[in-house]
Amino acid sequence: MKRLVLAVLLLLTAAAQAAEPRRYGLEPEKVAPDTYVFVGKTENFSPANGGNIVNTGFIVTKAGVVVIDTGPSLLYGREMRQAIAKVTPLPVVRVINTHLHPDHIFGNQAFADVGIEALPATIRGEEAHGKAFADNMYRMVGAWMQGTELHPPSRQLPRAVQTVGGHRLEMIAVQGHTDADLMVLDHATGVLFASDMAFLDRAPTTPHAEPAAWVAALDEMAKLPFTVLIPGHGRPDKERRAIRQTRDWLAWLDATLRRVAEDGLEMTEAMAQPIPERFAGMALAREEFVRSVSHLYPRLEQASLRRTGP
Ligand SMILES: [Zn+2]
Ligand SMILES: [Zn+2]
């Protein structure tokens, strides 16, 4: 009898859990006056995290709220909006996609009434790759994506510097992580939303990267007058570690791949190269290194064959 009661209880608990609405539980972190970030986990996409592996943020200006990136799913975008409404009664007036990657854009639907803005190449990229990104996300995080559809930006970013409700926002277009990466520097607060141009304590991803261009852009970024940097992935950074660390990783990655390509190593041998001790605290270092080899190595092998060939 006891066992039967226990079995029924277990069944009821399981049913209650299944019926419970899925939630990310997004909590905004205040990083500067008027400025909030939803800090994601430094993990890979998984059904457990629902794709909440990314940083998104918002600035509360006197003229309304500026949203920077919308997260991995419709549900995430909706939760963002609810969380923003708890901070301010002001409406969302601007929504920006920093670049085309799926963890940054699939909450767009939740802001469809406001309209999304991005660089022209980002809009083209979302239109070209968005469908494949969505399929991939459904495979990797499952039910969290329910109802999510591609909703590319409808507006090109109008001007490089725009003042919104007393915040002078500099829109800085760079390249390296992808062919169009947008950073937002708020001169009113000194916060730099660095997009995926900077990672912190999480290995950078490179599916659309040009490491040499990325390193050059990081050197320019280091000269910007910011006091807090919000990386695309990793904790908000007041110590200027994110730029240094991202640069260090990319320069090592680029040099390592060039060396092993010159040596004529196979791709699997390249993937097995040791990772320096100084990157030991970086989440997903081996996983991202292996992924980077698979993205970047074929090109380098070709280049090195051309140099040595007839
Ligand atoms: Zn990215
Ligand atoms: Zn990202």
Automatic annotation (TrEMBL):
GO BP field: antibiotic catabolic process
UniProt KW keywords: Hydrolase, Signal
Statement: the UniProt record of this protein carries the keyword Hydrolase: yes
UniProt entry tagged with the keyword Hydrolase: yes
Pfam family, one: Lactamase_B
GO MF, one example: hydrolase activity
Origin: domain of life: Bacteria
Domain Metallo-beta-lactamase stretches: 53-233
Range of residues in the leader sequence: 1-18
Family: Belongs to the metallo-beta-lactamase superfamily. Class-B beta-lactamase family.
PANTHER family (alphabetical): ACYL-COENZYME A THIOESTERASE MBLAC2 (PTHR42951:SF4), METALLO-BETA-LACTAMASE DOMAIN-CONTAINING (PTHR42951)
Name recorded for this polypeptide: Putative metallohydrolase with beta-lactamase domain
Organism: Paramagnetospirillum caucaseum
